[in-house]
Design brief:
The structure holds two protein chains of two kinds. Helices cover about 35% and strands about 25% of the residues of chain A. Chain A is of the alpha/beta class. In chain A, helix 5 (about 130-140) runs parallel beside helix 6 (about 160-175). The two termini of chain B are about 25 Å apart. Classes of the chains: A alpha/beta, B mainly alpha.
Chain lengths: ~210, ~230
C-alpha cells in the first residue's frame, strides 16, 4: 500500500498509509481507538474503497475490481457470522457446500480447529465464546482464505479460549496464510505476531 | 442460469428451512399470530353473509401481515451474528443468495397459506368448489412467489439498517397491494364468492404471475447492490 487514503462518511479514516506485508507473515496492527485499524482491515478485505493512493492485496489492484479479492480473504470482526440455531457441523457443512470444499478438506479444517467429536453436534448458541471463535476460524480454513483479517479476535475470551485461538492462528500461519491482527491485547498478540505496526490518525507511525 | 448458482441457491434455501425446523418460529409464533388475526376478523364482522363475502380478502390480509413477520425472521437469522456480512465478504453470489432466501420464504408461506385457507373454511364458511381448485392453487402459488420475491428484496434492503422492524412494513405494504388485490379476486373466483365465475379469476392469476416475474428478476439483479453497505 502506498499513500492510501480511504474515506468513511466523507472523512479520511486512512490518510496516506504505507504498508507492505509479506506472504505468510503475521502482523499485529496496534493503535488507539479510532486510529484506523478496522478501516485498514476493511480496505485490505476490499470492503472499503481506496480513494487515493495505490494498493495491491494478493496481487489484486484495490483501485480496480475489488470483488476479485473477496473469495480469497477472510474477515472476522466482532461477530462470528454463524447461525445460532444450527450445530457446529451444520454451519461448517453449509460453508463447505457453498465454496465447494471436499469432505476431506472439511474434515481437516474441523480437526485443526479442534471441533471434531462431540462438539460437532452442539448448537452454536450452546458453545462458549472461544468455541464460537474457533468455529468461525474453521469457516476461514474451509474457505481456503489466503489472508485472514482479524479484528480484536481475543475480545471476550477467557485464557483457555485465547490459547486455543492462538494455536489455530499459528497453525494457519505455518500453512502459508497471511494474518493481519488488530488488537488492544498487545502482550498476548505480540507472542503471535512476526511484526508489529502502530497506526495513529490513519497512518503507520511505527513499525517494529 | 449456471449449475453452481442453482446449487448455492438450493443450499441457502435448505439452510433457512433447517433453521426454521430447529427454531420452530413459524409453527410456534407466526401461525398462532395468523390464526388470531383470522379469529379477530371473524369477531369484528360477525356471522352471516358479510364474513363469507369478505373471506378471501381477510385471508390474504392475514397472509400479508404474517409475511412481514416471516421476512423479518428470515433476515434476523442472517444479521444476528453477522452471517449476511460473512456471505457478502466471502463473495457468495448475490443472485444465489436472493433465489435461496426467496425459495425458502415461498415454502414457508405456502405452508402458512394452506393452514389459513383451512381456517377460512372453518371460521368464515368459505366453501371451495371442485371446478375452482386449479385456480385456487395457481392463485396461491403465483401470489406466494410474488410475496416471497418482494419480501426478500425489502428484507435485504432493511437488514442491518436502523429501525428495520418498523421500516419493513412501510416498504412492503404499499408495493404488495397488487398481490393483495389479485390474490383476493383470484380466490373469490375460485370459491364463487358473489356468484363469480371461475373464468373471471384467470386474468388476476396473469397479473400475479407478471408481478412475480418482474419482482423476481428485478430482485435477482439488484440484490447484490441492496445488501452492500
Amino acid at each position: 500500500m502506498n499513500g492510501v487514503i480511504a474515506l468513511l462518511g466523507g472523512f479520511p479514516a486512512l490518510s496516506g498509509l504505507d504498508l507492505t506485508v509479506a506472504h505468510g507473515e503475521v502482523v499485529l496492527v496496534a493503535g488507539p481507538n479510532g486510529a484506523g485499524k478496522t478501516t485498514l482491515l476493511n480496505v485490505c478485505g476490499g470492503l472499503v474503497p481506496v480513494a487515493r493512493g495505490s494498493a495491491h492485496v494478493l496481487g489484486v489492484d484495490l483501485t480496480g475490481d475489488r470483488a476479485a479479492l473477496r473469495h480469497r480473504v477472510g474477515l472476522l470482526g466482532h461477530r462470528n457470522g454463524l447461525y445460532g440455531d444450527l450445530t457446529v457441523s451444520e454451519n461448517l457443512t453449509f460453508w463447505s457446500d457453498l465454496v465447494g470444499a471436499t469432505p476431506e478438506e472439511t474434515a481437516r479444517s474441523v480437526e485443526a480447529a479442534g471441533l471434531a467429536g462431540r462438539l460437532a453436534d452442539v448448537k452454536v448458541t450452546a458453545l462458549s465464546a472461544g468455541q464460537r471463535r474457533r468455529t468461525a476460524l474453521a469457516v476461514l480454513l474451509i474457505r481456503r482464505a489466503e489472508l485472514w483479517l482479524l479484528d480484536e479476535p481475543h475480545a471476550g475470551l477467557d485464557p483457555d479460549g485465547r490459547g486455543e485461538l492462538d494455536a489455530l492462528i499459528r497453525l494457519a500461519a505455518t500453512s502459508g496464510v497471511t494474518v493481519m491482527l488488530a488488537s488492544h491485547d498487545l502482550d498476548r498478540s505480540r507472542d503471535l505476531a512476526d511484526r508489529e505496526i502502530t497506526v495513529v490518525g490513519g497512518a503507520v507511525v511505527e513499525a517494529a | 442460469m449456471s449449475a453452481g448458482r442453482l446449487r448455492a441457491a438450493r443450499r441457502i434455501a435448505v439452510k433457512d428451512l433447517l433453521v426454521e425446523r430447529r427454531s420452530r418460529v413459524l409453527v410456534n409464533q407466526v401461525l398462532p399470530f395468523s390464526g388470531l388475526v383470522m379469529v379477530v376478523f371473524a369477531f369484528a364482522l360477525g356471522t352471516g353473509g358479510v364474513l363469507e363475502r369478505a373471506a378471501p380478502g381477510l385471508m390474504w390480509l392475514a397472509v400479508l401481515f404474517s409475511t412481514l413477520i416471516t421476512v423479518q425472521r428470515s433476515f434476523a437469522i442472517e444479521t444476528a451474528d453477522g452471517a449476511l456480512e460473512s456471505l457478502r465478504v466471502a463473495g457468495i453470489d448475490p443472485v444465489a443468495l436472493f433465489l435461496g432466501k426467496a425459495a425458502a420464504l415461498a415454502v414457508e408461506l405456502i405452508a402458512l397459506i394452506t393452514v389459513l385457507l383451512g381456517l377460512a373454511v372453518v371460521l368464515y364458511g368459505a366453501e371451495p368448489r371442485a371446478e375452482g381448485v386449479v385456480l385456487l392453487v395457481t392463485t396461491a402459488i403465483s401470489a406466494t412467489c410474488g410475496l416471497a420475491a418482494l419480501g426478500t428484496i425489502y428484507g435485504g434492503l432493511a437488514a442491518g439498517g436502523p429501525g428495520r422492524e418498523t421500516l419493513l412494513p412501510l416498504l412492503i405494504l404499499p408495493v404488495a397491494a397488487p398481490v393483495l388485490i389479485g390474490a383476493t379476486r383470484g380466490v373469490e373466483a375460485a370459491l364463487g364468492t358473489d356468484r363469480t365465475a371461475v373464468s373471471e379469476g384467470w386474468p388476476w392469476v396473469g397479473l400475479l404471475t407478471v408481478f412475480a416475474v418482474a419482482v423476481g428478476v428485478s430482485g435477482a439483479l439488484a440484490f447484490g447492490t441492496l445488501i452492500e453497505d
